[in-house]
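== Fold encoding ==
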Amino acid sequence: MAYEVTIEARYPRDADTVFAEALNFAELREAMRGLARYDGLPDGVAYEGQSCTVDVTLFGILRNPGHHMHVERLDRAARILQSREHNPSVRRWDHTLSVQPEGTGCLWTDRVVIDADRLAWGTARFARFVYTRRHRHRGALSIARTIRRV
């Protein structure tokens, strides 16, 4: 069974600037500081077709080796990034990130489809926690979260 996690975060900043920041791996490291470390994460900015395999260590003790990330689509004009991810415990972690103008700021939407066999329910809730924490760390004005079966 798969679940879709949707996080909508509102920011008081320009959509183009926020999207450019979202593509930078250093920004991801900073947003996850204190929660997760990514060994093997590249430097610089994500690009379409890019693939990497990282070892993720959660809370400094829980190691999840072999998390594969592939940037399937990157549309800078539309401010959309689509990645396909998986690891030995999660068969599917498809993440679509979109940053769109809204009023004087922007709306950042993360949609993640997770299929992890019997672990899917818990993994979806963990994803909701992680993405919410990232947006709080980034200073989002508001954050809405949903989980649904797909």
